[in-house]
Amino acid sequence: MPTPHAPTATSAAVPTGTESTTDGDDACHTTAAPPSREPRRTDIPVLAVSGGLLTAFVLAALIAPTATGDAVNAVFTFVARWFGPLWQVLLLATFGVALWLGFSRYGKVRLGGAGARPEYGRFQWVAMIMSTLLAGGGVFFAAGEPVQHYVETPPYYEGVKSGTQQAADAALSQSFAHWGFLAWAVLGTLASIVMIRGQERGMPLRPRTLLYPLLGERIRHSRLGAAVDIVCVIAVVAGTVGPIGFLGLQVSYGLSQVFGISGGYPVQLGVIVLLTVVAVLSVASGIDRGIQFFSRANIWLAVALMAVFLVLGSLGFVLDSFLGGLGQYAKDFVPLALNRGDHAWLGSWTVFFFGWFLGYGPLMSIFVARISKGRTVRDLVVSTAIIPPLATMFWFTVFGGTGIFLEQQNPGTISGPLKAVGMDAAVISMAERLPMGAVVAVALLLLTITFVVTTTDSMSYSIAAAGTKTGEPTRAVRAFWALLMGAAAAVLILVGDGGITALQSFIVVTAVPVGFIMLPTLWTAPRVAKEMALEQGIVLREPPVTGPEPQSSAVPEPSSAVVPEPQSSAAPEPSSAVVPEPQSSAVAGPQESQG
């Protein structure tokens, strides 16, 4: 993903009016230069505090895993109960506002200025966005979650008989509710619009910029700005360490099943070390090389694997299930998003996922803003909140639907390993039961690694940017965060299930302050979109209401005001009394109508 474009003095100074076109052109033509000229300044307090807090949590989990897990779980229960409703409303509202912006007249607004043009082709752009988020659970949850909902019907669909096609539709619908439109909207739409606008105005690509429309320049160097950066960094680090840990578990289980290699901690540690080394090399090479390469590789490998599953599995069942699940999801869209029935179940599923995605929001918006300059608002909304969710839902249907199909043919085939081992066992068990199962399983493990590499390196870049005052984040800082997240995952897996469970709960806890940081984007994003529309001439500026309005209520006033003037002049009273009146009324009429 491209390096952030530091705004020029011109782009930060020109607020409105006819100069907006020049502003956009200037911003477009000077995007690459500022980072190379601008000195790199790392924000040491943000780096030290966020890194220190993460290290403290990992050490606490290592020294006292039971006490740490109990404490985090207690806070998690409280947070899920009382903040879960806010997150559900926030994600639903974000999707609604994003759709309105994208398909209103503001959808034509070009991000970065009227003259800005995209740096990446559409495929490269969407591939980088999708790979970054889908890696969080694209393979880990895609097979296991639908099967889990199939064998244990979610509370919202209580009464649906398990083992039926209706149960399969309900299982996919519930999975779509977690990984569909709402998740993607909060990660790539409103916050990214605010972030790009802030960058145009001279603000850095840091989480604090999300509050720029509310607080202005005060947020740039304030303690509140530093606190915002710190909590957002901690949230996304926790959310990224989780997938790294999941990867170690999944690859370890897969190697033990396919090749008979003992799946103990040494294997898990080896997988995490390999992933971390690759992620460090990728993020050090920059967005245009490593991150972009792995993003493209992810998409092509994912498409190939989907084709293999459709051919070797049941194409008809998967297509029927996709349509049935999508129809059920559309029917229950709002009730599923706002469901508050079973608080314990919601905390383990819906609220957990929503908190996880929300925690990613600010740092993901940095990444999306970094690679989306030159796109229109409509382009952004369609390519983040519509296309990726639909692709994700089909992805979940291919893997989850195939798992349900195999479970129907032989009950316990997939659900047995799922219950005994966990999510990491579902996709491997499914692959083993297909023709050429060993080859398919290895390809799945490879895809899992490349997906998580993409998330780790892109988030390492965003975290480093969040801790950089000016210029591009240094390679050392980018590599530091990749190494720290890999080390944290290795330690938490060493602790055992308690460490991973504590981390999952911690992810939700860290989303609490992030939710309040993302909340204002519901009204600041439309506001800045309107500002950009005015500057780019997409929306005409309404003429100001001026004083002549009161005069329009009293028609005789002009004539009474004109009479004394001719009298003060000389003899031509009759002609001067006649001529000025039409002139004064002719001038006043358009003013009144404009007013």
UniProtKB/TrEMBL annotation:
Keywords: Cell membrane, Membrane, Transmembrane, Transmembrane helix, Transport. One of its GO terms (cellular component) is plasma membrane. Residues 1-41, 541-595 are annotated as: Disordered. The chain crosses the membrane at residues 44-65, 85-103, 123-143, 176-196, 224-247, 267-287, 299-324, 344-368, 380-406, 434-455, 476-496, 502-523. The keyword Ribosomal protein does not apply. It is found in: Cell membrane. It is a multi-pass membrane protein. Residues 1-16, 548-588 have a biased composition (Low complexity). It comes from the Bacteria. Pfam families: BCCT. GO terms for molecular function: transmembrane transporter activity. Belongs to the BCCT transporter (TC 2.A.15) family. This is Choline transporter. It comes from Streptomyces chrestomyceticus JCM 4735. The lineage of its organism: Bacteria, Bacillati, Actinomycetota, Actinomycetes, Kitasatosporales.
